[in-house]
Specification:
Layout: H1 3-6, E1 8-9, H2 20-30, E2 34-39, E3 42-48, H3 49-55, H4 65-74, E4 87-89, H5 94-104, E5 108-112, E6 118-123, H6 124-134, E7 142-149, H7 154-164, E8 169-179, E9 182-191, H8 196-205, E10 210-215
Parallel strand pairs: 4-5
Antiparallel strand pairs: 1-6, 2-3, 5-6, 7-9, 7-10, 8-9
């Protein structure tokens, strides 16, 4: 799954001379939390709702509403925007996008095309939706968590049991768990299971203990 399939294309943008008040209105009206800043077609910065909150007067201020509006109308985005923008290309994978957000502790990335022009925005919400779809959660399958060891052929052996029982697998993912000196994995499979007891018996007998089973969706 790639970024260009999950991003919001043609995002709302602003210029460096956009006022803080106008940027606030754009975010509020479009229900978004970040705005790429464009100058003559080039990406020069980014502003987030957090940035705008930080420069907004405190509710405890003694300024009048007229004075507040005047200050926000005079302040421009170029004075508060972040000039170092972390981007990702439209042809990158969503895994790369997720890792970039995680490493940089940010909630969204500006997506650029091959010429470095803004093509879209991808956010943590987009990645969350991708996770839900990749895991097949809306389809209403049975989720089986299996304890496996780190050895060659594990996936082949486990899925072979599902094949022998005529069970169609919708999605599969594994993640590593530390367990003393031996590396252990939990294998999570979502499938159309009609008889969980038989499946559990077969997996346990093959040396793959079933840790958890639940119907999701």
């Amino acid at each position: 799954m790639f970024v260009d399939k999950r991003m919001t294309p043609n995002p709302v943008t602003i210029t460096p001379t956009t006022t803080v008040a106008d940027a606030m209105d754009l975010m509020r009206n479009n229900k978004i939390r970040r705005l790429p800043v464009i100058d003559h077609g080039n990406l020069v910065g980014i502003i987030t709702d957090r940035d705008l909150r930080e420069v907004s007067p405190s509710p405890a201020t003694t300024l009048s509403i007229f004075e507040l509006n005047y200050l926000l109308a005079k302040m421009q985005i170029k004075d508060i925007m972040k000039k170092h923008v972390i981007t990702i290309t439209a042809d990158a994978t969503i895994e790369e996008a997720a890792l970039s957000m995680y490493n940089n502790r940010i909630g969204g990335l500006v997506v650029v095309d091959g010429n470095g022009k803004v093509a879209g925005v991808i956010t943590e919400t987009d990645l969350f939706k991708s996770f839900v779809d990749v895991m097949g959660l809306p389809e209403g399958k049975t989720r089986i968590t299996i304890d496996v060891s780190d050895k060659i052929g594990v996936i082949h052996e486990v899925t072979g049991i599902f094949k022998d029982l005529g069970i169609n697998i919708g999605s599969l993912v594994s993640y590593r768990l530390p367990n003393g000196t031996e590396t252990k994995y939990e294998l999570v499979i979502r499938a159309d299971v009609s008889d969980v007891d038989i499946l559990t018996q077969k997996l346990n007998a093959a040396g793959y203990p079933v840790l958890h089973i639940v119907q999701i969706g």
